[in-house]
Recover the amino acids of this structure.
């Protein structure tokens, strides 16, 4: 099977998975929803056809295992397991490559081994994570956190916008919320993790490169906050007498933007805003916002979050509205494994491409996997750097390069273990 055929199959499969959405006219596939069940079934079938034994853990991660060669397992060298993967959930109104491309490029690499009847001196585990984006429960890396044994029991109490607790969603998705701790992957036999992902940024396109090697993944903090003022009649309450919750929220949104503009390397985003009671002739009594703060340096990120909380408190005092602020979670910045990244870079140069090293502003499941083993990431150029947007687009020839580089990378890992 040529690399081009494999690349075309990856893109066709991204299209197949993109048809599984919660919404008829845009791609939204949140944790534990029926479309997630459907894509798990489809991907499990592809995994089995590629010679993998497939299982599903209690949070809903799909785990396909491609065994090591007999000789290795028999003692030529302790076999071990190398991990590949990415996520199958999406944001709202998503592109079709953020997550699934990484799962399907890894699947293509296994398929190509299987087609050649080849096994490596170590097993491969292909991980299709059930929730990386955290759209439904605001819990980034929910799937990979279970696999990495980093799950926090209090997360089970989270409820979605429809008031459904996470524990109930896990059950509805086919898992046992009380058995999550038992799904933690023991790290003893792990040799590393490699994730292929669209860059979601403009650098590779600007440098006219098909792929790049990720140096680090920046940390992120997620919070939710609410301003509570007083609902009132839009026609009778003078502006000077109002306690307008949306006015306070609006002032805060601009303060967030100013903070990011004023701090080098900081990005801060209010992505969600809900206004209550939400009628055109009623002064908003309550405004609820999300806040996402990121920076390569963890201390700078924490300081920015603290300054924004103080600013929100000041806005509340000046407008006589009350503030509630809740930290939803945070993940520290992670550096990719130097040795695995050097092998990935060599795989790129052996394939005839420059191996640009670049940081990731976006979060990835590799953050959680770094708690278990060394991680490496391969970025794939995406058009205009656009992502978290249905305009997300990749070139087939770049996907072919990613498949080739990943295949060479696995061969280099195998060669280090004394086998071709
Ligand atoms: O938000 C992120 O960085 C990732 O897409 N979950
Ligand atoms: Mn994403
Ligand atoms: Mn992603």
């Amino acid at each position: 099977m040529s690399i081009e055929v494999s690349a075309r199959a990856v893109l066709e499969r991204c299209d197949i998975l993109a048809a599984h959405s919660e919404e008829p006219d845009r791609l939204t596939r949140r944790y534990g929803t029926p479309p997630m069940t459907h894509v798990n079934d489809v991907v499990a079938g592809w995994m089995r056809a590629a010679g993998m034994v497939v299982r599903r853990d209690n949070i809903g991660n799909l785990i396909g295992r491609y065994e090591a060669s007999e000789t290795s397992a028999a003692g030529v060298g302790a076999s071990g397991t190398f991990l590949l993967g990415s996520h199958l959930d999406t944001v709202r109104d998503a592109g079709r490559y953020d997550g699934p491309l990484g799962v399907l490029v890894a699947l293509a690499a296994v398929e190509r081994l299987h087609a050649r009847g080849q096994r490596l001196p170590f097993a491969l585990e292909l991980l299709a994570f059930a929730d990386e984006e955290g759209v439904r429960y605001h819990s980034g890396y929910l799937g990979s956190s279970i696999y990495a044994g980093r799950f926090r029991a209090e997360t089970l109490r989270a409820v979605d916008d429809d008031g459904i607790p996470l524990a109930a969603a896990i059950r509805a998705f086919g898992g046992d919320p009380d058995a999550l701790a038992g799904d933690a992957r023991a790290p003893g036999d792990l040799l590393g993790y490699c994730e292929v992902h669209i860059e979601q940024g403009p650098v590779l396109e600007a440098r006219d490169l098909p792929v790049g090697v990720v140096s680090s993944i920046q940390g992120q903090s997620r919070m939710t906050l609410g301003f509570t003022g007083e609902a009132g009649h839009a026609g009778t309450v003078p502006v000077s007498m109002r306690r307008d919750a949306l006015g306070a929220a609006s002032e805060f949104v601009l303060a967030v933007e100013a903070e990011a503009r004023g701090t080098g390397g900081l990005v801060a985003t209010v992505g969600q805003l809900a206004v209550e009671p939400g009628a055109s002739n009623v002064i908003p009594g309550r405004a609820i916002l999300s806040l996402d703060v990121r920076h390569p340096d963890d201390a700078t990120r924490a300081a920015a979050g603290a300054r924004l909380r103080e600013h929100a408190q000041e806005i509340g005092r000046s407008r006589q509205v009350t503030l509630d602020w809740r930290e939803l979670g945070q993940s520290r910045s992670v550096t990719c494994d130097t040795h695995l990244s050097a092998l990935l870079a060599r795989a790129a140069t052996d394939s005839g491409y420059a191996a640009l090293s670049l940081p990731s502003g976006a979060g990835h499941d590799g953050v959680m996997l770094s708690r278990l083993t060394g991680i490496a990431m391969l970025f794939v150029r995406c058009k205009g750097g656009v992502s978290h947007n249905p305009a997300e687009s990749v070139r087939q020839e770049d996907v072919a390069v990613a498949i080739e580089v990943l295949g060479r990378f696995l061969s280099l890992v195998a060669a280090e273990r004394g086998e071709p």
